[in-house]
Specification:
- The protein is mainly alpha-helical.
- It has helices at residues 3-26, 29-53, 74-106.
- The longest helix has 33 residues, at 74-106.
- The chain is extended and about 80 Å long.
Length: 108
């Protein structure tokens, strides 16, 4: 693969990502998600204020809604492990190279 193909692939990938985010923004998807989060927060504030007025026991877990879904599966865990392995290998290789360079620079 030559240098021009790599640059072209990276450029096209960035262009498609930009276009996708642009259309998601124009379609209102991002605003819709933010509005839903705000509505949930306002509902929880009203519920909290009502419980305070009624002198009910206050527990923070009653007012926090965490709707994060876990998308873990074997492929994502495997790719995460591969990524970590590559990261640690790359880090140790860089440390080795820079230690050798430091020793070479400090020799007289």
């Amino acid at each position: 693969m030559n240098k021009n193909n790599v640059v072209r692939i990276i450029g096209l990938t960035l262009l498609f990502l930009y276009i996708g985010l642009y259309f998601a923004s124009n379609a209102g998807y991002i605003d819709y998600q933010a509005k839903n989060q705000m509505v949930l927060t306002e509902e929880q504030i009203k519920k909290f204020e009502q419980d305070v007025k009624e002198n009910k026991a206050i527990d923070i877990e009653n007012y926090i809604t965490n709707k994060e879904e876990m998308y873990d599966n074997n492929i994502s865990r495997m790719s995460l492990n591969i990524s970590r392995t590559i990261s640690t290998t790359f880090e140790s290789a860089l440390n080795f190279v820079f230690e050798k360079l430091e020793k070479a620079m400090n020799r007289k």
